[in-house]
Amino acid sequence: MAKQNIINRTIGVNFNNLGLADVLVWAPFTDKVLLKLADEELAIIKQEHGYFSLTTNKLKPGDQYQFVVNGKSLPDPASLLQPGGVHGPSAAFDLKAFAWTDADWQNIPLSNYIFYELHSGTFSADGTFKGIEDKLDYLVDLGITAIEIMPVSQFPGSRNWGYDGVFPFAVQNSYGGPAALQHLVNACHQRGLAVVLDVVYNHLGPEGNYFGQYGHYFTDKYHTPWGSAINFDDAGCDEVRRYFIENVLMWFRDFHVDALRMDAVHAIRDFSPNHILREINQHVAKLTQETGRTHYVIAECDLNDTRYINPLQKDGYGFDGQWIDEFHHALRVTAGGERNGYYSDFNGIADLAEAYQNGYVYHGQYSNQRQKTFGTTTEGINGRQFVVFSQNHDQVGNRMLGERSSRLFSFEMQKLMTGAVMISPFLPMLFMGEEWSEPNPFQFFVSHSQEELIEAVRKGRKAEFADFHAEGKAPDPQDQSTFENSKISWGLLDKGQHKVMREYYKNLIRLRKSQPAFKNTNRENMSVLVNEASNTLT
Amino acid sequence: MAKQNIINRTIGVNFNNLGLADVLVWAPFTDKVLLKLADEELAIIKQEHGYFSLTTNKLKPGDQYQFVVNGKSLPDPASLLQPGGVHGPSAAFDLKAFAWTDADWQNIPLSNYIFYELHSGTFSADGTFKGIEDKLDYLVDLGITAIEIMPVSQFPGSRNWGYDGVFPFAVQNSYGGPAALQHLVNACHQRGLAVVLDVVYNHLGPEGNYFGQYGHYFTDKYHTPWGSAINFDDAGCDEVRRYFIENVLMWFRDFHVDALRMDAVHAIRDFSPNHILREINQHVAKLTQETGRTHYVIAECDLNDTRYINPLQKDGYGFDGQWIDEFHHALRVTAGGERNGYYSDFNGIADLAEAYQNGYVYHGQYSNQRQKTFGTTTEGINGRQFVVFSQNHDQVGNRMLGERSSRLFSFEMQKLMTGAVMISPFLPMLFMGEEWSEPNPFQFFVSHSQEELIEAVRKGRKAEFADFHAEGKAPDPQDQSTFENSKISWGLLDKGQHKVMREYYKNLIRLRKSQPAFKNTNRENMSVLVNEASNTLT
User: CB B220 to CB A223 under 8 A?
Assistant: First the structure.
């Protein structure tokens, strides 16, 4: 049985130097697993700790296969491609077949990252990786240095933000699958663009989730807002930890991804002596040692706790950076946005000053919304560890109607808000289309195939807006038009005010890149003065 | 409103220097709280964060009172005395009234602790603190240096191990209440004995638990084996944390307790930046700074994770020590005890050698029973941080029939097992009566008043023994005779083999105290050699 290693993926189906398929699947609940091919079934050999392994010449790249577990034919939990969607068979894929031409590429320093968050399905008319590739020259011209791709792991149907993915290793078939993703990353690197991929390790989606039939992937020790917590510290956790560590390594090693954005790490519960997040980052460090390539891991974290971004040597979890939602909240309230829901903890300009000064607005104060003292000091943390934005997929899409800033703030206020992001001592992030003040919404959409689940999502969505919008009707997440309405309008690029805004963004980005003062993320010499009366900072 | 401080208890009812009662209760779910006295009701004034406070001359020490919350008359969550049991009114008690005569007492160094664990209800014929006091001279003569008292916080009825306590601040009325506990500690100190108190912060018992009617004491974010987890990191947690921190401080400051043994800290879930256990130990350190008195806090912990016992300065939780159940398990399997249930991970003499060498038997190996890699290295940890035993209330009482070693091992084997404990580089602990090879069992007993709960406990007990005893009938926990049968037999003290055993213990303790080699807890120069064939260590 292949032991976990740094330089090769070992779980699922992988092709070795002889071109044979090495098959490794973890199925501790059974004594027998079969590999089901087009016209035969092969017995896989039981190993210790619930693993089953086999090396065979009967499975070739492109071939479809399933595992038979307790009489049921199931997709591979470590599948790289689901050609027929989440419920169908898996397809073997050779991770090493792609002809990379980015040997000269070197990751850019983190402090030079200017992120551009995009959703593959709505970024271009055809909603594929190829659609993104076609716009790379535009993005280079705009001046951004990194595209951040919302999750691409196989989800049910063809319309989803990506957070309902159920096969962490499989690249969404409707986006083009793994080969198209490798092609896209290669194309980015040839243009000097870094690639950030959003990954989700706090839960697995509700539809097409066959993991419980294989092993203890879940635990009921903890609750998450999205169902069962992934088992990182209970019986069987060694294998689950290995599964996710291998996932991280794969994106960097086999897809040449430059950075990961890890979704909602605060919902990853682990009482092991070494937290899984720390162990992941330790493995990333080992990979860099092995390959000489630099990789960044950035957390989305709602805890205002520097433990996550402190270095490994200081017993931190070792994330290179984290998103700062509170900067966004303070900025929007200052700009005159509404103050209900999670905005209720924010009061305007003084909070924005806190964000400029500390990253975290709450760094030890009592929060009325959380009903507790919240946050740690950020002393000694460099500003490049904080990613800020005036809008992103969540803040836009989690409004009932999905309105972007373009629909909520005046043209001039939009410019001010972007300015606030761009001159911050943190790393700026744009959300696709904001640079031309895209008027279309970004709404919540799904394409489930199970009626019960579709209804549950509809209901859940409605419940979520109790706090936000008393009036109006929530768009139907399952409706194809909700997805179509969320596509950005490339036709506006050179029109009227849209063009003006785009030029403004371009100049602002150029300014940030050329003026050392604007990209200085060393916070030590910074001071922020608040003028409440004029609602300004100096 | 009184802020939490180190030198005075601030929550519940406390008497200030003018003899007035300062009343402080946290009731965030309501806008109105009344203080109900014998013949009147006083309105308590609402403060911030859900607190209500009042200073009055109408409540005197000894007076009974209740709080009226949402129309219901309830006991005080921070009650010091429940004269009529868990459901009745609370009684005011002046923590500072006792005339201490232990001003010269100084806590003994931790490495000199020889623990004697006892259960107040079954240790003496009358089952009270006074009953313990009457035997102190005997314990001094035996040579032990510290008594460890199983939990005394108010529990339902008069028979309970103590882990179903519901009023963490109230001292069990049937044991004699808070004044009698202060008297006992004082008497111990006069004889040179230290006092360790067992406290439970991982849950509150099922009967008489009125906390949910006051505030967010519980969270459903985590599960515990005993029901709702206490809320240390969710909305309202500041006040819950303060409640338990004040509890710790009270035992040390107002009861002169020398050390706490904290029950099952692995079940205390907290994702705050500063874990509640660490914050507790930080407050204990502050108390020592304030008073000059030394206090120890010892954890029961099932995680083999040195984070708990690493010092505060090294980001540890700062416990002075922890129990090592694995030493016990390895010892018993080596001695020929059964190997089912939690013993199945242990194989005998080689594991005992691991325990001698590392404290933790599992310090990074794969555990078949836990189905995961388990434990951290204990390098650099001094042996005085580990408490070991050949039996304790749990290992005895959690057998279906509650048999002590006296019923399971030969006389000579019992001597060998005690020898193994006494010559270890760790701190030894005895369980009451083992020194004369007490033949009576220590069984699980309760005295609930709710039929449904009584049945649930009976069933739960039976289910627990699926792994252990296929045959035989479990004693009824609710039956008075189960409690009576668990009392130790002082009449045997000077009889036959019992006397021989007692002399053996006394000599062994004297040897440990007089021979530096036997009480050396510095593990660096120790080596343990295993001889599997002869089942011996050298």
Answer: yes
pLDDT tens track for B228-263 = 899 999 999 999 999 999 999 999 999 999 999 999
Q: Please list every residue in chain A whose beta carbon sits closer than 8 Å to the beta carbon of residue B4.
A: none
Give the mutation candidate from B219, B308, B371 for the A interface (greatest A CB count, under 10 A): B371
Strand locations in A127-224 (E):
146-149, 153-154, 167-171, 194-199, 218-224
Percent of chain B scoring above 90 in pLDDT: 87
Arithmetic mean of pLDDT, B38-46: 96
Question: A19 - beta bridge partners?
Answer: none
Q: CATH number of the domain that A227 lies in?
A: 3.20.20.80
Taken as a whole, chain A contains a residue count of 538
Asked whether residue A31 falls in the same domain as residue A162, the answer is: no
- Give the Cα separation of B512 and B506 in Å (integer): 10
Gap between the terminal Cα atoms of chain B: 62
Q: What is the CATH number of the domain that holds A47?
A: 2.60.40.10
Structure tokens at A368: 């009325």
Domain match, A155 and A86 both: no
CB proximity list for A169: less than 8 A, separation 6 or greater: A12, A78, A79, A80, A153, A247, A250
pLDDT tens, residue by residue, B64-106? 999 999 999 999 999 999 999 999 999 999 999 999 999 999 9
Specify whether the backbone of B239 is left (phi greater than 0), alpha (psi in -120 to 50) or beta.
alpha
| A87 is a domain residue | yes
Q: Do A236 and B372 touch (CB under 8 A)?
A: yes
Residues 303-322 of A with CB under 8 A from B: 303-307, 315
Residue tagged 């580990």 (tokens): B386
**Could you tell me if B269 lies within 8 Å of chain A, comparing CB atoms?**
yes
Q: Tell me which chain A residues have a C-beta less than 8 angstroms from the C-beta of B366.
A: 49, 238
What lies within 8 Å, CB to CB, of A347 at 6+ separation is: A333
Query: CB atoms < 10 A from the CB of A197, how many?
Result: 23
CB B372 to CB A235 under 8 A? yes
Q: Determine the distance in angstroms separating the CA of B365 from the nearest CA of chain A, rounded to an integer.
A: 11
Closest CB to A222: pick one of B216, B222, B233.
Answer: B222
Which long-range contacts link B474-480 to residues 24+ away (Cβ below 8 Å)? B474/B400, B474/B401, B475/B401, B475/B402, B475/B443, B475/B444, B477/B443, B477/B444, B477/B445, B477/B446, B478/B445, B478/B446, B478/B447, B478/B448, B478/B454, B479/B445, B480/B159, B480/B447
Q: Which of A236, A269, A372 sits opposite B238 (nearest CB)?
A: A372
- Which of A34-43, A335-344, B24-33 has the lowest average pLDDT? A335-344
Contact A223/B at CB under 8 A: yes
- Annotation marks residue B263 as catalytic: yes
What number of other Cβ atoms are within 10 A of residue A365's Cβ? 13
Tell me which residue in A221, A237, A366 faces B372 most closely, judged by beta carbons.
A237
For range B160-185, the mean pLDDT: 98
**Is A38 part of the contact surface with chain B (CB cutoff 8 Å)?**
no
Domain residue limits at A56 = 12-91
Q: What is the mean pLDDT of residues B309-335?
A: 96
Q: Is the pLDDT of residue A489 over 80?
A: yes
Q: What is the mean pLDDT of residues B207-217?
A: 96
DSSP labels, B418-461: HHHHHTSSSEEEEETTGGGT--S--------S-HHHHHHHHHHH
Average pLDDT over residues A16-21: 96
ipTM value, please give it. Answer: 0.90
From the list B49, B223, B238, which residue is nearest A220 (CB)?
B223
To the nearest whole Å, the CA of A223 is away from the closest chain B CA by 5
Same domain, A83 and A123: no
User: Is B302 within 8 Å of chain A by CB?
Assistant: no
Out of A91, A124, A145, a domain closes at A91
